[in-house]
Design a protein that fits this description.
Elements: H1 2-34, H2 54-75, H3 149-163, E1 181-182, E2 192-196, E3 200-203, E4 212-216, E5 221-227, E6 233-239, E7 242-247, E8 251-253, E9 275-278, E10 320-321, E11 340-342, E12 345-349, E13 354-359, E14 365-370, E15 380-382, E16 385-389, E17 394-398, E18 407-412, E19 423-425, E20 428-432, E21 437-442, E22 448-454, E23 464-465, E24 469-473, E25 477-481, E26 487-490, E27 502-504, E28 513-517, E29 522-527, E30 533-538, E31 545-548, E32 552-557, E33 560-565, E34 571-576, E35 587-588, E36 592-596, E37 602-606, E38 612-615, E39 627-629, E40 632-636, E41 642-646
Parallel strand pairs: 5-9
Antiparallel strand pairs: 1-9, 2-5, 2-8, 3-4, 5-6, 6-7, 10-41, 11-12, 12-13, 13-14, 15-16, 16-17, 17-18, 19-20, 20-21, 21-22, 23-24, 24-25, 25-26, 27-28, 28-29, 29-30, 31-32, 32-33, 33-34, 35-36, 36-37, 37-38, 39-40, 40-41
């Protein structure tokens, strides 16, 4: 039994060895039958780096997508034939297809792999050959190692993104004016047909401080449906679906009939027939709020920014001294500037380089400020500061105190002397120089520049301000936008402006009117908004100053005072004046004129006929026109005395 067992063990060992050998042979046989081909190398299609067009961008995306399919198919044993070169069709972009700065260019030939997935088979896949690039194609090196699918996808996406157009910055939408609403109590009465005189800018509201919403070409017919209270701005309707505002001066308004109920002599093209309207859109910069001058103040050279010299007093005679003769209303030297009045203070500059303030009811000195320079023009005052310009052209902003903090800022614009007194509108101070430049400065920001305008001529006159126009007179009369300094109109006939223009609103003929006199003695009545002629009259003499009331225009010059009808320009009367140098021009009260001469003559004239109804000789040489406050008349003399005269109770 033991010998039999020993014989079986070797036989079992031999059989086991045979089975192992047979298994090994079978495995080798199967491996030869089922052997897989080598891992294919994926070649990226040729890339064109010229400026891509819209279609080229699509081609790149297609190429990258098909590359991914080819790569996945090769890894899974899909039969991938050698790709054929296919030319991408060239498309010429129209202007609408291109970004604003792009230029349409012809695209080069791009080779895109053609992938045929076909049926899944068991054949050994062949290695995919890289496409043959054209001479113009850029060679891309075939990677030696195969990234995984996620990495390959990321690379392809990054490449495609890099070849896309960089999007042009999104254009800021043009603001559209919210429909303008009529002002309460002013029902619409008419619309007017108008034609643009030249290409013009249109704004969301009646000012350049609103956003620009459109540009209208020259010769375009539009419909005007509304206006601002002064008539400077009108609302043009229905151009490119935009309602907007533009200056009336930029339109020719013609061919319109007067609305029903208008006076028999009414003109159909008058913008006063348009409805008063206002914009519901907020301006880009807040519009300055109009500040009414208190009736007892005289803060500017001709009292208000329109240079009307209108005051609320009757100049009732007799005119007498209102201050005691022993008062302290004197300076250490002669006065050099005309006075101004604000609140309870009368303010004037002296040759001792100081600015003085006196109580207007009793004449006592309130303050004294050392300027360090001589001031010859009237102060310009608006809350909370006093503005002066000295003989050298330095501007000084002051607080009305006598303390060390009185000076707020000082600024010298250049090496020139001033030409006239300064004017103020809102936060802007207007300065004229003998260099023939009108400067607009931010008065509350240390006199920072806003704009300036150079005028031709020998001497800039006092700048008069209307609604949103400032009128600069020199060799020509120019109307400028008060906020930007842009010229709106220029009178073609005036040759040499002889004195400050006068602005009046409401007008007799137009919504707003401007009066000016030239060096030849001709008086010009103009539409203040457009510069259109209302009338022109040669006077036969040489006025140098003007003033207005509701129906009359007053002119004064060497040895005379006259009155003209504002509607026709016809002279109503002319009277002699005993002094050849009338200071500043007539000051218009209620039914009377106040006229002063350099020698100290003060006369009150009746506006109906020019007859003298009162006088008050000061017997001292005066430095400039008076300032009027209620029933008071203040005059600065060269002897250093400030006179407070008073009308009868």
């Amino acid at each position: 039994m033991r010998s039999s067992a020993r014989g079986i063990l070797p036989l079992a060992f031999v059989l086991l060895i045979g089975l192992l050998a047979l298994a090994l042979v079978g495995r080798l046989f199967l491996e030869r039958r089922l052997a897989l081909g080598p891992t294919p190398t994926i070649t990226r299609p040729a890339v064109n780096t010229d400026t891509p067009t819209v279609d080229f961008r699509a081609t790149i995306n297609s190429a990258e997508s098909k590359t991914q399919i080819a790569y996945r198919a090769a890894r899974e044993g899909i039969d991938t034939p050698t790709p054929e070169a296919t030319a991408t069709p060239t498309v010429t972009a129209t202007p609408a297809d291109l970004p604003p700065t792009a230029t349409a260019t012809q695209s080069d030939t791009v080779f895109v792999p053609i992938i045929d997935v076909g049926d899944l088979g068991t054949s050994t896949p062949e290695q995919t050959a890289a496409p043959t690039a054209s001479p113009d194609a850029i060679d891309v090196e075939t990677p030696t190692s195969q990234p995984d699918e996620a990495t390959q996808t990321a690379i392809a996406a990054a490449t495609a993104t890099a070849l896309l157009f960089t999007p042009s910055p999104t254009e800021t939408p043009v603001p559209t004016a919210t429909p303008t609403q009529p002002i309460a109590g002013a029902p619409p009465v008419a619309t007017l047909q108008a034609v643009t005189k030249s290409p013009i800018l249109v704004y969301a509201g009646p000012s350049v401080l609103y956003a620009q919403v459109n540009t209208l070409p020259q010769g375009l017919t539009v419909r005007l449906e509304g206006r601002s209270p002064s008539g400077e701005w009108v609302r043009a309707c229905c151009v490119n679906n935009v309602d907007g505002w533009a200056r009336q001066a930029f339109f020719n308004i013609s061919g319109n009939k007067a609305p029903a109920g208008a006076p028999p002599d009414a003109k159909g093209d008058d913008v006063r027939w348009l409805a008063l309207q206002q914009s519901n859109v907020a301006p880009l910069t807040p519009l300055p709020t109009a500040t009414d001058i208190p009736s007892a103040d005289y803060p500017l050279f001709r009292r208000d920014s329109g240079a009307t010299a209108r005051v609320a007093t009757e100049f009732r005679p007799p005119i007498s001294y209102g201050w005691p003769r022993d008062n302290l209303s004197t300076a250490a030297a002669g006065f050099t500037s005309p006075p101004a009045v604000v609140g309870s203070a009368v303010i004037a500059a002296s040759a001792d380089s100081h600015l003085y303030g006196f109580d207007k009811t009793i004449g006592n000195q309130i303050f004294k400020i050392n300027l360090g320079a001589t001031v010859e023009y009237a102060p310009a005052i608006q809350d909370p500061y006093i503005y002066l310009i000295d003989r050298t052209g330095e501007i000084i902003a002051l607080r009305p105190t006598g303390g060390p903090d009185a000076v707020v800022w000082r600024r010298r614009l250049g090496n020139f002397q001033p030409s006239t007194a300064m004017n103020i509108r809102g936060d802007t101070l207007f300065v004229t120089g003998q260099n023939q430049v009108l400067y607009a400065l931010y008065r509350l920001d240390n006199g920072r520049d806003r704009w300036n305008f150079s005028a031709d001529g020998l001497r800039l006159q006092y700048p008069t301000i209307g609604d949103q126009l400032i009128y600069a007179g020199n060799a020509k009369l120019n109307a400028l936008d008060v906020y930007s300094g842009t010229k709106v109109w220029e009178d073609p006939l005036i040759s040499g402006v002889a004195g400050p223009p006068v602005y009046s609103r409401p007008g007799i003929i137009a919504l707003a009117e401007l009066y000016a006199v030239d060096t030849a003695g001709t008086i010009h009545a103009l539409d203040a908004n457009t510069g259109g002629e209302l009338w022109r009259k040669a006077s036969g003499y040489r006025p140098s100053a003007l003033a207005v009331d509701e129906t009359r225009l007053y002119a004064a010059g060497p040895g005379f005072v006259s009155a003209q009808d504002r509607r026709t320009g016809n002279e109503l009367w002319r009277v002699p004046f005993a002094d050849d140098a009338i200071l500043g021009g007539p000051i218009v009260g209620n039914g009377r004129l106040l006229v002063t001469g350099i020698s100290g003559i003060v006369q009150v004239l009746n506006v109906r006929d020019g007859q003298v109804v009162g006088s008050a000789p000061v017997t001292e040489s005066l430095v400039g026109p008076p300032a009027v406050s209620g029933g008071w008349i203040f005059l600065a003399a060269r002897n250093g005395r400030l006179y407070g005269m008073k009308e009868s109770e």
